[in-house]
Amino acid sequence: EKKGTQDWYHRGMQDILPTWRWWVEGTNGGTRTDLSFDLNWDDAYNVGTSIEVKGNLKADAEYLTRLYKTKLAIEAGDKFELVYKTEFAGSIEVKLATTEANSTFATFPVVETSKKNGWSVASIDISSLAGKTVSIIALNFKSATALSNYKVQLGQLGIMAGNYAPAATPVANLMSQNALKESISDIRLIWDAPAN
Hints:
Layout: E1 23-27, E2 35-40, E3 50-57, E4 62-73, E5 79-86, E6 92-98, E7 101-109, E8 114-116, E9 119-125, E10 133-142, E11 147-160, E12 172-180, E13 185-192
Antiparallel strand pairs: 1-4, 2-3, 3-11, 4-10, 5-9, 5-11, 6-7, 6-10, 8-9, 12-13
């Protein structure tokens, strides 16, 4: 199904899809078929798509969903950031496995720390894994009570360095050269960028 009329040309703005689509392990009566996964093109956090998870959560069941295979060294102060939408607070956990113990997951509860454009943002301190290398990024969906209408949208996730603070690029001598006409217009911005 075609979603747009313009050519796609910017690979840097495309979403990086999960390594595994969709590897779900259900426990305590939960099964893979209880949940469905889809790309949502109509409600994305930052251009592109979001991942929509919906279905039925059985009471006290867990749905471990492996998403990414990776090799990320963790340092003190590093954070895991998840941007999501759901009406069911406390139903998501971040699970991280390390190269030191691939079959054992460190569990971090997802708690909203802020809101941005209608999306919940959870910033989770993962300093307890400092000195280790994350090999698997997974999410666990769960509920103490049965939910027949469970839905969550995943807008963005990432591991951020503890000292992550991108600096604004300085712009000098900004000039605007506009040619605005009735049937066609041209807008040109010119500036001096730093050499480095």
